[in-house]
Amino acid sequence: MPTVSVKWQKELFPAVEIDTSQAPYVFKCQLYDLTGVPPERQKIMVKGGLLKDDADWSTLGVKEGQKLMMMGTADEIVKAPEKGPVFVEDLPEEEQVVTMGHTAGLFNLGNTCYMNSTIQCLHSVPELKSTLIKYPQSGRSNDLDQSSHLLTVATRDLFNELDRNVKPVAPMQFWMVLRKKYPQFGQLHNGSFMQQDAEECWTQLLYTLSQSLRSSSSSENPDTVKALFGIELVSRVHCEESGEESSEAESVYALKCHISHEVNHLHEGLKHGLKSELEKASPSLGRSAIYLKDSRINGLPRYLTIQFVRFFWKRESNQKAKILRKVDYPLELDVYDLCSEDLRKQLEAPRQVCTLPSALMNLSCSLYFIGHLPFLFAWSFQFQHPNYKILRDEEGRKLGLKTSDKSSGSMDTAVKKACCRGIIKWRWRII
């Protein structure tokens, strides 16, 4: 292979090899590596004119040591970035929180995982936070006890502290007020605070907030907690022995997934949880009798909470025992068959709308694992259907939250009313 020298501008590149078995385009690529001038911009003077990409070397008469002239403008040299790529996991903890959109965590004050999980779960509900912000520091109503007022104020202040900080927060004030209101959370064993039930903390705190916010004039909704978390149940109570039958209505804050050797799936556990046996006095028999209670969902909240009932009482040992059975759950939970006939009729219209391809459900909910304690689930529903954004913006404005001004259009009244009551499909992401 002959070697030539190539002069480009003020530079001279000696001993450049030419592979005459390859097309001249390959030679131009070699010069591109040396000069940074792309092959399409290169003008190389040879015998007979300019060197073409597909020319035949044998006809060009290139000799050993020949000096070739090249013209052309080089590409701008790519400069190395001043700062290299930074991965999220390499950022300081404070910056990771901001980048990922997470809020501050909570320090464990000694077996307080049950309390921390409950707080973080409720803190993720924007409607509850917006209501607590308006709760007055003083001036409680006469029908509210002082301890309930102080616990509500402590919850509000802790939420504000979590929003202001990126580093973990020590919920000491809230814990002190919680133990004063509910002394069972202050039980000691060998000088240390005992582990407690997260579901019990969840229920007690929701009950307190419900009482406080209901009596407060700061809330437009007379019962904010019930509107967000309350599940309306209608039950048929039947005694097979006497034939007596009655109906009952009640409101609860969580559905229970009862676990037994027959339960392998969340849906099966929910069905078991809606059926129970009661022993009470029978007017017709004049004595106690067994009644069967079969409940159905008659109203769904914005956030549906589900408890895995993993503890039961062992009579032989007179202590609690934990059920370690594995229970599967789907990526999408549909509780339509658990609803009452009246609620099913109200949900028929939005269900038909949301079965269209443009109205697929969006993964938008949270699943909270509470260590070795019973599981608590915080759910919310969200649609990709265009009308859903209109509905959320309308509700957001009422709550004083930031909303988009670009939403337009109107929503069918029947669909809007049913969506406000709660579509019966939820999906979640594990966090």
Describe this entry's structure for a reader:
It is an enzyme of class 3 (hydrolase). This is ubiquitinyl hydrolase 1. Belongs to the peptidase C19 family. GO terms for molecular function: cysteine-type deubiquitinase activity; proteasome binding. Residues 104-431 form the USP domain. There is one protein chain. By secondary structure, the protein is α+β, with helices and mostly antiparallel strands. Among the domains are: 3-71, Phosphatidylinositol 3-kinase Catalytic Subunit, Chain A, domain 1 (Ubiquitin-like (UB roll)), CATH 3.10.20; 104-229, Alpha-Beta Complex (Cathepsin B, Chain A), CATH 3.90.70. Helix content is 32%, strand content 22%. The chain has helices at 24-35, 93-100, 113-123, 126-133, 146-164, 172-181, 198-215, 224-229, 266-273, 341-353, 386-399, 413-421; strands spanning 3-8, 11-17, 43-46, 49-50, 67-71, 188-189, 192-193, 231-238, 245-252, 255-258, 275-282, 287-299, 305-309, 311-314, 319-322, 332-334, 366-368, 376-378, 425-427, 429-430. The strands form six sheets. Strands 2-1-5-3-4 form a five-stranded mixed sheet, covered by helices on one side. Strand 3 (43-46) and strand 4 form a beta hairpin. Helix 3 (113-123) packs across helix 7 (198-215). The longest helix is centred in the middle third of the chain and has 19 residues, at 146-164. The model is unreliable at 355-392 and 400-431 (pLDDT under 50).
Q: How would you sum up the global shape?
A: elongated
Which regions have little confidence, pLDDT < 50, spanning 5+ residues?
Answer: 355-392, 400-431
Question: What can be said about the biggest beta sheet?
Answer: 5 strands, mixed
The tally of helices reads 12
Task: Give the distance, in angstroms, between the N- and C-terminal Cα atoms.
Answer: 64 Å
**What is the share of helical residues?**
25-40%
The quaternary organization reads as single chain
Name the CATH superfamily classification of the domain at 104-229: Cysteine proteinases
- In terms of DSSP E residues, the strand content is 15-25%
Structural class: alpha+beta
**In the CATH scheme, what's the topology name of the domain at 104-229?**
Cathepsin B, Chain A
Q: Report the mean per-residue pLDDT as an integer.
A: 79
